[in-house]
Design brief:
It is a single chain. It is built from twelve helices and 13 strands. It has 318 residues and is an alpha/beta fold. It has one domain: Rossmann fold, CATH 3.40.50.1820. The strands form two sheets. Strands 1, 2, 3, 4, 5, 6, 7, 8, 12 and 13 form a ten-stranded mixed sheet that branches. A three-stranded antiparallel sheet has the order 9-11-10. α1 links the parallel β5 and β6. α2 packs across α3 and α6 crosses α7. The longest helix has 16 residues. The radius of gyration is 19 Å and the shape is globular. The N terminus is likely disordered.
Amino acid sequence: MMGRIAASAHSPSRAPGLGLYYDSLSISLAGRMPHLPQPIIHLCGPADAPPLHLMPANGFPPQCYLPLLRRLPGYRAFCLPPRALWGDQAAPDDYRGWDEAADDLLAGLEAHTGHGGVAVGHSLGGIVSMLALMKQPGRFRALIMLDPVLLPRTTLRAFARAWQDGSIEQFPLVQGARRRRRKFDSQAEAFCRFRKKPIFADWTDEALWLYVRQGTKASADGCGIELVWSADWEAHYFATVYRRVWQDLPGLNGLAPMLLVRARGSDTFPDSVLGQARSMLPAADFITLDDQGHLFPLAAPELTARVIARWLEKCREW
Protein backbone atom coordinates (compact mmCIF):
# COMPACT_ATOMS: atom_id res chain seq x y z
CA MET A 1 0.00 0.00 0.00
CA MET A 2 1.45 3.35 -0.98
CA GLY A 3 -0.27 5.29 1.82
CA ARG A 4 -1.08 8.98 1.93
CA ILE A 5 1.54 11.46 0.84
CA ALA A 6 1.70 15.12 1.78
CA ALA A 7 4.46 17.37 0.47
CA SER A 8 5.02 21.06 1.05
CA ALA A 9 7.03 23.53 -1.00
CA HIS A 10 10.26 24.61 0.65
CA SER A 11 13.93 25.17 0.02
CA PRO A 12 16.31 22.20 0.12
CA SER A 13 17.92 21.50 3.49
CA ARG A 14 21.44 20.39 4.28
CA ALA A 15 21.67 16.83 5.55
CA PRO A 16 23.52 16.91 8.87
CA GLY A 17 26.91 15.30 8.53
CA LEU A 18 26.28 14.23 4.94
CA GLY A 19 27.73 17.23 3.10
CA LEU A 20 25.06 17.31 0.41
CA TYR A 21 21.65 18.88 0.06
CA TYR A 22 18.38 17.00 0.08
CA ASP A 23 14.70 17.76 -0.25
CA SER A 24 12.31 16.28 2.28
CA LEU A 25 8.62 15.56 2.57
CA SER A 26 6.32 14.19 5.21
CA ILE A 27 4.63 10.87 4.58
CA SER A 28 1.97 8.95 6.43
CA LEU A 29 1.85 5.23 5.78
CA ALA A 30 -1.21 3.37 7.01
CA GLY A 31 -0.44 1.54 10.23
CA ARG A 32 3.01 3.06 10.54
CA MET A 33 4.66 6.03 12.17
CA PRO A 34 3.19 9.24 10.64
CA HIS A 35 4.68 12.52 9.52
CA LEU A 36 8.31 11.52 9.19
CA PRO A 37 10.78 13.53 7.13
CA GLN A 38 11.87 11.44 4.16
CA PRO A 39 14.91 12.83 2.37
CA ILE A 40 15.84 12.54 -1.27
CA ILE A 41 19.59 12.76 -1.61
CA HIS A 42 20.85 14.04 -4.96
CA LEU A 43 24.21 12.37 -5.52
CA CYS A 44 25.63 13.24 -8.94
CA GLY A 45 24.84 13.65 -12.61
CA PRO A 46 23.02 16.27 -14.67
CA ALA A 47 19.39 17.01 -13.86
CA ASP A 48 18.21 16.01 -17.34
CA ALA A 49 20.01 12.63 -17.38
CA PRO A 50 18.13 9.32 -17.01
CA PRO A 51 17.57 8.51 -13.32
CA LEU A 52 19.49 5.90 -11.38
CA HIS A 53 18.38 5.13 -7.84
CA LEU A 54 20.93 3.78 -5.39
CA MET A 55 19.91 1.88 -2.25
CA PRO A 56 22.99 1.38 -0.03
CA ALA A 57 24.14 -1.47 2.16
CA ASN A 58 23.34 -1.53 5.86
CA GLY A 59 25.49 1.02 7.68
CA PHE A 60 26.79 2.92 4.66
CA PRO A 61 25.42 6.36 3.67
CA PRO A 62 24.80 6.65 -0.07
CA GLN A 63 27.48 9.32 -0.53
CA CYS A 64 30.07 6.59 0.09
CA TYR A 65 29.16 5.28 -3.37
CA LEU A 66 30.12 8.50 -5.18
CA PRO A 67 33.40 7.05 -6.55
CA LEU A 68 31.28 4.35 -8.24
CA LEU A 69 28.41 6.60 -9.35
CA ARG A 70 30.67 9.27 -10.84
CA ARG A 71 32.00 6.62 -13.19
CA LEU A 72 28.48 6.26 -14.62
CA PRO A 73 28.28 9.77 -16.12
CA GLY A 74 25.23 9.12 -18.28
CA TYR A 75 22.89 8.97 -15.28
CA ARG A 76 21.44 11.21 -12.56
CA ALA A 77 22.08 9.28 -9.37
CA PHE A 78 19.93 9.86 -6.31
CA CYS A 79 18.84 8.01 -3.17
CA LEU A 80 15.64 7.73 -1.15
CA PRO A 81 17.36 6.15 1.86
CA PRO A 82 16.01 3.79 4.49
CA ARG A 83 14.76 5.19 7.78
CA ALA A 84 18.15 4.89 9.43
CA LEU A 85 19.02 8.11 7.59
CA TRP A 86 15.78 10.01 8.22
CA GLY A 87 17.21 12.10 11.05
CA ASP A 88 16.91 11.24 14.71
CA GLN A 89 14.22 8.57 14.42
CA ALA A 90 14.91 5.71 16.83
CA ALA A 91 15.08 2.16 15.52
CA PRO A 92 11.84 0.26 16.27
CA ASP A 93 11.71 -2.58 18.76
CA ASP A 94 9.18 -4.62 16.79
CA TYR A 95 9.68 -6.55 13.57
CA ARG A 96 9.20 -4.24 10.60
CA GLY A 97 11.07 -6.07 7.86
CA TRP A 98 12.93 -4.81 4.86
CA ASP A 99 9.75 -4.45 2.81
CA GLU A 100 8.99 -1.30 4.83
CA ALA A 101 12.04 0.31 3.20
CA ALA A 102 10.65 -0.76 -0.20
CA ASP A 103 7.32 0.90 0.62
CA ASP A 104 9.15 4.05 1.68
CA LEU A 105 11.14 4.04 -1.54
CA LEU A 106 8.01 3.79 -3.64
CA ALA A 107 6.26 6.52 -1.64
CA GLY A 108 9.27 8.78 -2.17
CA LEU A 109 9.36 8.10 -5.89
CA GLU A 110 5.68 8.94 -6.16
CA ALA A 111 6.21 12.24 -4.37
CA HIS A 112 9.59 13.31 -5.71
CA THR A 113 10.36 11.96 -9.15
CA GLY A 114 7.75 9.47 -10.31
CA HIS A 115 10.26 7.04 -11.83
CA GLY A 116 13.30 5.30 -10.40
CA GLY A 117 14.95 4.48 -13.72
CA VAL A 118 17.72 1.99 -13.08
CA ALA A 119 17.50 0.52 -9.57
CA VAL A 120 20.93 -0.25 -8.08
CA GLY A 121 21.10 -1.84 -4.66
CA HIS A 122 23.96 -3.20 -2.58
CA SER A 123 23.43 -5.97 0.00
CA LEU A 124 20.34 -4.89 2.00
CA GLY A 125 19.76 -2.32 -0.75
CA GLY A 126 19.65 -5.03 -3.39
CA ILE A 127 16.77 -6.80 -1.66
CA VAL A 128 14.93 -3.54 -0.96
CA SER A 129 15.25 -2.61 -4.64
CA MET A 130 14.04 -6.06 -5.66
CA LEU A 131 10.96 -5.75 -3.43
CA ALA A 132 10.17 -2.28 -4.81
CA LEU A 133 10.36 -3.62 -8.36
CA MET A 134 8.02 -6.48 -7.50
CA LYS A 135 5.52 -4.16 -5.84
CA GLN A 136 5.49 -1.62 -8.71
CA PRO A 137 7.31 -2.86 -11.82
CA GLY A 138 6.48 0.26 -13.79
CA ARG A 139 8.72 2.39 -11.59
CA PHE A 140 11.97 0.88 -12.87
CA ARG A 141 13.48 -0.08 -16.20
CA ALA A 142 16.29 -2.31 -14.86
CA LEU A 143 17.49 -3.89 -11.62
CA ILE A 144 21.13 -4.24 -10.58
CA MET A 145 21.79 -6.17 -7.36
CA LEU A 146 25.32 -5.95 -5.94
CA ASP A 147 26.04 -8.89 -3.63
CA PRO A 148 22.43 -9.03 -2.45
CA VAL A 149 21.52 -10.88 0.73
CA LEU A 150 20.66 -14.32 -0.65
CA LEU A 151 21.40 -16.47 2.37
CA PRO A 152 20.84 -20.24 2.42
CA ARG A 153 17.38 -21.38 3.49
CA THR A 154 18.82 -23.01 6.61
CA THR A 155 20.26 -19.68 7.72
CA LEU A 156 16.99 -17.86 7.07
CA ARG A 157 15.07 -20.47 9.04
CA ALA A 158 17.49 -19.91 11.93
CA PHE A 159 16.71 -16.19 11.83
CA ALA A 160 12.98 -16.97 11.90
CA ARG A 161 13.34 -19.30 14.90
CA ALA A 162 15.44 -16.70 16.71
CA TRP A 163 12.69 -14.12 16.30
CA GLN A 164 10.12 -16.58 17.59
CA ASP A 165 12.07 -17.62 20.68
CA GLY A 166 13.50 -14.18 21.43
CA SER A 167 17.15 -15.06 20.85
CA ILE A 168 17.73 -12.83 17.81
CA GLU A 169 19.94 -10.50 19.86
CA GLN A 170 22.40 -13.39 20.27
CA PHE A 171 23.21 -13.51 16.56
CA PRO A 172 26.83 -12.38 15.97
CA LEU A 173 25.91 -9.74 13.36
CA VAL A 174 23.34 -8.21 15.68
CA GLN A 175 25.66 -8.32 18.69
CA GLY A 176 28.50 -6.83 16.66
CA ALA A 177 26.34 -3.93 15.55
CA ARG A 178 25.16 -3.28 19.11
CA ARG A 179 28.76 -3.21 20.36
CA ARG A 180 30.02 -1.01 17.57
CA ARG A 181 31.69 2.15 18.77
CA ARG A 182 29.39 5.05 17.99
CA LYS A 183 31.37 8.13 19.03
CA PHE A 184 34.87 9.47 18.34
CA ASP A 185 36.84 12.52 19.37
CA SER A 186 37.50 13.50 15.75
CA GLN A 187 37.36 12.29 12.17
CA ALA A 188 41.10 11.64 12.36
CA GLU A 189 40.58 9.29 15.30
CA ALA A 190 37.75 7.53 13.47
CA PHE A 191 39.91 7.08 10.37
CA CYS A 192 42.79 5.60 12.37
CA ARG A 193 40.46 3.20 14.15
CA PHE A 194 38.70 2.09 10.96
CA ARG A 195 42.01 1.72 9.10
CA LYS A 196 42.91 -1.17 11.42
CA LYS A 197 39.63 -3.05 10.87
CA PRO A 198 39.75 -6.11 8.59
CA ILE A 199 36.49 -5.04 6.88
CA PHE A 200 38.31 -2.00 5.47
CA ALA A 201 41.59 -3.78 4.63
CA ASP A 202 41.08 -3.53 0.85
CA TRP A 203 39.79 0.05 0.89
CA THR A 204 41.96 2.89 -0.34
CA ASP A 205 42.65 5.75 2.04
CA GLU A 206 40.53 7.96 -0.23
CA ALA A 207 37.52 5.63 0.05
CA LEU A 208 37.92 5.29 3.81
CA TRP A 209 38.16 9.05 4.31
CA LEU A 210 34.98 9.44 2.28
CA TYR A 211 33.24 6.98 4.60
CA VAL A 212 34.51 8.86 7.66
CA ARG A 213 33.44 12.26 6.37
CA GLN A 214 30.04 11.20 5.06
CA GLY A 215 29.33 8.61 7.74
CA THR A 216 29.77 10.81 10.80
CA LYS A 217 28.21 13.98 12.18
CA ALA A 218 28.66 16.22 15.19
CA SER A 219 27.56 14.44 18.37
CA ALA A 220 24.28 15.51 19.89
CA ASP A 221 26.05 16.30 23.18
CA GLY A 222 28.57 18.53 21.42
CA CYS A 223 31.50 16.26 22.22
CA GLY A 224 33.23 14.89 19.14
CA ILE A 225 31.43 13.03 16.36
CA GLU A 226 29.10 10.05 16.05
CA LEU A 227 27.93 7.68 13.35
CA VAL A 228 25.22 9.00 11.02
CA TRP A 229 23.83 5.47 10.61
CA SER A 230 23.29 4.48 14.21
CA ALA A 231 24.36 1.15 15.63
CA ASP A 232 20.77 0.48 16.73
CA TRP A 233 19.48 0.84 13.17
CA GLU A 234 22.31 -1.32 11.85
CA ALA A 235 21.41 -4.03 14.36
CA HIS A 236 17.72 -3.69 13.47
CA TYR A 237 18.33 -4.34 9.77
CA PHE A 238 20.55 -7.32 10.55
CA ALA A 239 17.94 -8.75 12.91
CA THR A 240 15.08 -8.30 10.44
CA VAL A 241 16.81 -9.84 7.42
CA TYR A 242 14.28 -10.54 4.67
CA ARG A 243 13.34 -14.22 4.94
CA ARG A 244 11.06 -14.80 1.94
CA VAL A 245 13.63 -14.06 -0.70
CA TRP A 246 13.65 -17.57 -2.17
CA GLN A 247 9.87 -17.61 -2.43
CA ASP A 248 9.94 -14.22 -4.15
CA LEU A 249 12.78 -14.63 -6.64
CA PRO A 250 10.74 -16.38 -9.38
CA GLY A 251 8.30 -13.47 -9.34
CA LEU A 252 11.02 -11.22 -10.74
CA ASN A 253 11.03 -12.99 -14.08
CA GLY A 254 9.77 -10.79 -16.88
CA LEU A 255 9.58 -7.60 -14.81
CA ALA A 256 12.80 -5.91 -16.01
CA PRO A 257 16.33 -6.72 -17.18
CA MET A 258 18.36 -7.91 -14.18
CA LEU A 259 22.04 -8.07 -13.29
CA LEU A 260 23.33 -9.77 -10.14
CA VAL A 261 26.99 -9.15 -9.29
CA ARG A 262 28.59 -11.05 -6.45
CA ALA A 263 31.99 -11.60 -4.89
CA ARG A 264 33.43 -15.08 -5.14
CA GLY A 265 33.37 -16.57 -1.68
CA SER A 266 30.79 -14.04 -0.47
CA ASP A 267 29.06 -14.99 2.78
CA THR A 268 26.08 -12.83 1.80
CA PHE A 269 25.46 -14.40 -1.61
CA PRO A 270 27.45 -17.62 -1.08
CA ASP A 271 28.65 -20.01 -3.73
CA SER A 272 26.30 -22.69 -2.37
CA VAL A 273 23.16 -20.81 -3.52
CA LEU A 274 24.40 -19.44 -6.83
CA GLY A 275 23.00 -22.37 -8.80
CA GLN A 276 19.58 -21.98 -7.16
CA ALA A 277 19.46 -18.29 -8.00
CA ARG A 278 20.44 -18.96 -11.61
CA SER A 279 17.73 -21.59 -12.01
CA MET A 280 15.08 -19.27 -10.56
CA LEU A 281 16.13 -16.30 -12.69
CA PRO A 282 17.01 -17.84 -16.06
CA ALA A 283 16.89 -14.53 -17.94
CA ALA A 284 19.04 -12.60 -15.47
CA ASP A 285 22.75 -11.98 -15.95
CA PHE A 286 25.11 -13.17 -13.20
CA ILE A 287 28.69 -11.97 -12.78
CA THR A 288 31.11 -13.21 -10.12
CA LEU A 289 34.10 -11.04 -9.22
CA ASP A 290 37.33 -12.71 -8.15
CA ASP A 291 39.54 -11.30 -5.39
CA GLN A 292 36.78 -9.08 -4.00
CA GLY A 293 34.80 -9.02 -0.77
CA HIS A 294 31.21 -8.15 0.05
CA LEU A 295 31.96 -4.41 -0.03
CA PHE A 296 33.37 -4.40 -3.56
CA PRO A 297 31.17 -1.48 -4.73
CA LEU A 298 33.01 0.65 -2.16
CA ALA A 299 36.44 -0.98 -2.23
CA ALA A 300 36.63 -1.39 -6.02
CA PRO A 301 34.41 1.34 -7.52
CA GLU A 302 36.21 1.44 -10.88
CA LEU A 303 35.80 -2.30 -11.46
CA THR A 304 32.18 -2.22 -10.31
CA ALA A 305 31.36 0.76 -12.51
CA ARG A 306 32.94 -0.95 -15.53
CA VAL A 307 30.79 -4.05 -14.99
CA ILE A 308 27.62 -1.98 -14.60
CA ALA A 309 28.36 0.31 -17.54
CA ARG A 310 28.98 -2.61 -19.90
CA TRP A 311 25.75 -4.28 -18.86
CA LEU A 312 23.72 -1.09 -19.19
CA GLU A 313 25.13 -0.58 -22.66
CA LYS A 314 23.98 -4.09 -23.56
CA CYS A 315 20.52 -3.24 -22.20
CA ARG A 316 20.28 -0.31 -24.62
CA GLU A 317 20.64 -2.77 -27.47
CA TRP A 318 17.62 -4.83 -26.36
